[in-house]
Design a protein that fits this description.
Blueprint: E1 2-6, E2 12-14, E3 19-26, E4 31-38, E5 41-46, E6 56-63, E7 69-79, E8 84-86, E9 90-95, E10 100-108, E11 114-118, H1 148-156, E12 168-174, E13 177-184, E14 191-197, E15 205-211, E16 217-223, E17 230-238, E18 241-244, E19 248-250, E20 260-261, E21 264-265, E22 269-271, E23 278-285, E24 291-293, E25 307-309, H2 311-320, E26 327-336, E27 339-349, E28 353-358, E29 373-374, E30 376-380, E31 387-394, E32 401-407, E33 422-429, E34 433-439, H3 458-461, E35 482-491, E36 494-495, E37 503-508, E38 526-534, E39 547-552, H4 554-564, H5 571-591, E40 595-597, H6 611-623, H7 625-647, H8 654-671, H9 681-700, H10 706-726, H11 735-738, E41 752-756, E42 766-773, E43 782-783, E44 786-787, E45 789-799, E46 806-815, E47 820-822, E48 825-827, E49 835-844, E50 849-851, E51 857-860, E52 869-875, H12 885-898, H13 916-921, E53 925-935, E54 953-955, E55 960-965
Parallel strand pairs: 2-9, 30-37
Antiparallel strand pairs: 1-3, 3-6, 4-5, 4-7, 7-8, 7-9, 10-11, 10-40, 12-13, 13-16, 14-15, 14-17, 17-18, 17-19, 20-27, 21-22, 22-25, 23-24, 23-26, 26-27, 28-29, 28-31, 31-34, 32-33, 32-35, 35-36, 35-37, 38-42, 39-41, 42-52, 43-44, 45-50, 45-51, 45-53, 46-49, 47-48, 53-54, 53-55
Helix pairs in contact: 4-5, 7-8, 7-10, 8-9, 9-10
InterPro entries: Ig-like_fold (IPR013783)
Length: 974
């Protein structure tokens, strides 16, 4: 399996940014080479180090697009047996070069800010498309078809056949016809497979198979009536398998052959070239006659700005179509005041996957019950029956099954077999959709590695345990929680399409019940202390993304720029570009000038208008970057640690490795997000590594002495050093993230060693707890994959300063026509026209407000010896969805008066203003409590100290509490 983890699908970058590209490779066989391809051109090849028993590796590049427009990224991995595996295709859009600025800290401008010195960006040449020179004469493709029976005999009855040689592929276009020129480099192929990926498609689709050609030579294959850009490759095959050619990209000059015009589509949302009040479109499925949507013609759609959400339309289209929906042509029109505007055309090779949860529990079928399907779910936390049904639809070609995942943290947009906070996953059969059920009361029964989806990858997935790892980031009993679900279309064990939308599932606490006290539990072995707390420290927006230049390597910079352009750009031109670029950065280095991102060009979309939640999302991307790198490399780290333990004479086989993996993952969860620029980073890093070492040793179940733990600590410390170096460019994010701060991305090339400007970095809230074994015995770590001891960490804040104030809110609503009425709830059809308007609220606040500004944490305690201590640094995750009770009550009353529901203003918690979190957090008093929980023991058995099958975590000590005051602010003043 080869997966591009970043950049994200459809993300935007400047042409002069050295875009970070990362890929994950999972394989039972040795990986010899990993290639990065961009727009059908080989950019770079990496040769990984591979050890016996290794099952995973990763590769990182920094690639500069060089020109504006759409670009396609692809990664290929070659195994030791010669097999070549393709990744998913990732599309990014590139805007003109953004450049950068220098800040002279010794001078100030008229506003008192450091003097700005505009930098001169790379003067990028127009690289153009990769030129293709077809051969003067090429006979047509072989007309004979491969003999499938003979091929089956070769593969199953005879000795293993040597893989045939890969063909070489070139192409030209004639109008909308693609001509592929296939150079046959072998004489023992059985035939050829032709693969194509249409615009926006994340996977190749086999479109034809050809017979063998006599001898070697070049022949031509014609693919008429196409719209591009398109990706192709051709495989020669025999009994030994497939041997793929180089991939190529084909672009068309004729406007009638171009897929997109005037608008863009990301798989679910159509982005229009301009805002309009009302919109509609004509659509054609599989090049059949056009229909209008919505229909009848007196109905229209109300875009959200430039965004037109097509999710409901696509879901209904796929479900109702009598044949598979493969292509969709749309022509979009809109009204602005009294003017009809043509908004462009789109040709889409549709790759759509949608997931919904049934809020009835199960049985959301039929016209009425199906209205209870939603992208938002609610589960009563006090309900013993927590089985819910999910429904999915997909039209991704080649889908044979689907992998569903449930996590305690939001998903990234790309596929990952082990996303952050994964709690449960499963595999369901189906080509176009179906349903499955999940029991949320017993998530531990679902393995994160269903064998039917990953049958060829068991060595890797065997390392992913359930049990303790399923407690990651879970709050204590009775606390409201949020979980996230998604589904990925698969072909066997390879993803063939992008993940679906996330389904947001919230636990709704029920009535408080008094449980009988459980007196018998494991001994109160540990003392828990809260040793420090530091609140969020917001960075200076003017210095966001700024870096100091520490060192410059001219040759590395030159090679990086050279790789970015085809051979048609001369070396002398590259030298001229790099010299000017190098000289500017050199001046910044010797003068100690910060190099900063250029301002974002659309000033009307500054970070001030995006709100605290959007800022939090962007910061979260930065805070989690260490964890992403760790996730990509953790299997290799585990192998190194296991080897170190083995050299000390302690056996560490597969079971030991599995425990190491789980322990490191749990430890990393709480260590996530501590920026390397923090003054106390080294101290916190060492404490975090100590915790990871203790936890990994406990999970592995090996007698790891102090010498052993010291050796493991050194391995992790070395790994974190490489992570720290990667954090030197905090401004190297996509345009979508950078514009929240009002800036453009700043991604400098390899060869430029940087250090982040500390004042521009927002630091997360951090708390450290110290756990000490105060008894004479070493307690057990877990019982039947459940932790024996856990620290529950809770945060509550009280803010009395808004008493008597009035807060103001504004909502935009989307009202659909009246649907089916059930009780006091209105359930509306999924495909109908909408009306839009605004709701204004003036909410008087009486009394103090209180709530949880940060998520609660449940932290497993490793097995500590008598008198031994461990300090655990915890990065607190903000709960940006906090709402003042008077606010939500006033909103519900206003919606009822207008005949609206929460769905009309963005769904349950989905689109509500997030600034109430700031009202709670600023100027309040934070209470942090830590309490030891341990497994209960069977009651009525004096002296019984062993847990039983029905044991549960119960309080086994008094809680420890301390409070801190946050910085005063008028963030919520009227």
């Amino acid at each position: 399996m080869v997966t591009i983890l970043h950049p994200s699908q459809e993300s935007r970058w400047p042409a002069d940014a050295f875009v970070p590209v990362g890929a994950l490779i999972i394989s039972q066989n040795e990986i010899k080479a990993i290639e990065l391809w961009a727009d059908g051109r080989l950019i770079s090849t990496k040769t990984p180090t591979w050890k016996d028993g290794q099952a995973q590796t990763s590769a990182q590049w920094q690639w500069m697009p060089g020109k504006s427009g759409n670009h396609t990224l692809l990664v290929r991995a070659t195994t030791g047996t010669g097999k070549i595996v393709f990744s998913n295709l990732v599309y990014i859009y590139v805007d003109p070069a953004a450049g950068f600025n220098f800040l002279d800290l010794s001078r100030v401008d008229e506003k008192g800010n450091p003097a700005l010195i505009p930098g001169m960006p790379l003067q990028l040449p127009e690289a153009g498309s990769v030129g293709v020179v077809p051969p003067p004469v090429a006979p047509p493709a072989p007309e004979n078809r491969p003999n499938r029976f003979a091929l089956w005999m070769e593969r199953n009855l005879f000795a293993s056949q040597k893989l045939t040689a890969s063909p070489t592929l070139n192409a030209s276009v004639d109008g909308c016809t693609v001509k592929l020129y296939i150079a046959d480099n072998s004489e023992d192929e059985t035939g050829f497979f032709v693969y194509r990926a249409g615009p926006g498609s994340s996977a190749f689709k086999r479109i034809d198979e050809l017979g063998s050609s006599p001898g070697t030579g070049i022949f031509q294959y014609t693919d008429p009536n196409q719209k591009g850009p398109l990706q192709y490759y051709v495989s020669a095959f025999n009994g030994g398998g497939e041997a793929p050619s180089n991939p190529i990209q084909v672009e068309f000059n004729d406007a009638d052959c171009q897929a997109a015009e005037g608008s863009s589509f990301d798989g679910k949302t159509l982005t229009l070239p301009q805002e309009v009040q009302w919109a509609y479109f004509y659509f054609s499925v599989n090049q059949q006659p056009y229909d209008r949507f919505p229909n009848p013609p007196n109905q229209f759609l109300a875009p959200d700005g430039k965004a037109l959400d097509l999710s409901d339309f696509l879901e209904g289209l796929i479900v109702s179509s009598p044949e598979p929906v493969e292509t969709l042509d749309v022509e979009v029109w809109g009204w602005q005041n009294d003017t009809l505007i043509a908004l462009g055309r789109q040709h889409i090779d549709l790759n759509f996957t949608d997931l919904k949860i049934c809020n009835l529990g199960t049985g959301c079928t039929g016209d009425v019950a199906s209205t209870f399907r939603s992208h938002y779910g609610i589960i009563a936390s006090d309900n013993s029956k927590q089985v819910h049904e999910f429904y999915w639809v997909s039209n991704v070609p080649g889908t044979t099954n689907a992998l569903w995942q449930i996590a305690s943290m939001p998903f990234d947009s790309n596929f990952h077999p082990r996303p952050r906070g994964l709690l449960a996953s499963g595999c369901v059969e189906g080509e176009t959709g179906g349903s499955f059920t999940v029991d949320f009361a017993h998530l531990e029964q679902y393995s994160p590695a269903p064998s039917t989806c990953v049958e060829n990858l068991t060595p890797y997935f065997d390392q992913l345990q359930t049990g303790v790892s399923s407690l990651l980031n879970l709050s204590s009993t009775g606390e409201p929680r949020t979980l996230y679900a998604r589904i990925i279309p698969m072909k066997g064990n390879q993803p063939v399409g992008q993940p679906s939308n996330p389904v947001v599932i919230r636990y709704q606490p029920g009535e408080t019940t008094v449980e009988p006290a459980i007196l018998d539990h494991l001994p109160d072995t540990y003392r828990v202390e809260i040793t420090s707390f530091s609140p969020i420290k917001w960075g200076d927006p003017n210095l966001w993304g700024c870096v100091y230049i520490q060192n410059l390597d001219y040759n590395t910079i030159w090679n990086s720029v050279r790789e970015s352009f085809p051979s048609t750009v001369s070396d002398s031109l590259v030298t001229s570009l790099v010299k000017n670029y190098y000289d500017q950065l050199y001046q910044a280095m010797i003068n100690h000038w910060p190099v900063c991102p250029a301002p974002y060009k659309e000033e009307d979309k500054s970070w001030l208008e995006e709100g605290i939640e959007a800022i939090g999302d962007a910061l979260e991307e930065f805070w989690n970057s260490i964890t992403e790198l760790f996730n990509e490399l953790k299997a290799g780290i585990v192998d190194v640690i296991a080897e170190v333990i083995n050299t000390l004479g302690i056996e560490c086989g597969q079971t030991c490795k599995s425990g190491l993996m789980t322990g490191l993952e749990i430890g990393m969860t709480y260590f996530t997000g501590i920026p390397p620029s923090l003054p106390t980073f080294d101290e916190l890093k060492n404490a975090g590594i100590d915790y990871m070492v203790e936890l990994a040793a406990s999970e592995a179940g090996v007698p790891c002495s102090d010498v052993c733990k010291s050796a493991v600590h050194d391995v992790l410390d070395e790994a974190f050093e490489s992570f720290e170096k990667s954090q030197g460019q905090p401004g190297c994010v996509s345009e979508e993230q950078a514009k929240v701060i009002g800036k453009s991305p700043l991604c400098l090339p390899p060869g430029v060693e940087t250090e982040a400007v500390l004042e521009g970095i927002t630091q997360p809230a951090l708390v450290t707890i110290k756990v000490t074994n105060i008894l004479k015995d070493t307690p057990l770590y877990q019982y039947e994959n459940r932790p024996a001891y856990v620290v529950h960490l809770k945060v509550k804040e009280v803010n009395p300063y808004l008493d008597g104030e009035t807060l103001y809110y504004s909502y935009r609503y989307f009202k659909k026509p009246k649907g089916v009425q059930i009780g006091d709830q209105e359930f509306l059809p999924s495909s109908s026209a909408t009306q839009t308007g605004y709701i204004s609220l003036a909410v008087p606040i009486t009394g103090e407000i209180s709530g949880s500004p940060f998520q609660s944490e449940s932290i497993p305690i490793p097995s500590l010896g008598p008198g031994q201590s461990v300090t655990i640094p915890v990065h607190l995750q903000p709960t940006y969805d906090y709402l003042i009770p008077q606010h939500i009550l006033a909103l519900l009353n206003e919606l009822k008066e207008l005949g609206l529901t929460l769905d009309d203003v963005g769904g349950l918690y989905g689109g509500l203003p997030p600034n109430d979190w700031n009202c709670l957090y600023q100027s309040g008093r934070i209470w942090i409590t830590a309490q030891l929980y341990c497994l209960s023991t069977p009651p009525g058995l004096p002296g019984q100290i062993a847990p039983g099958p029905d044991s549960q975590l119960v309080p086994c000590s008094d809680d420890v509490a301390t409070w801190f005051a946050t910085e005063p602010s008028n963030a919520c003043a009227p």
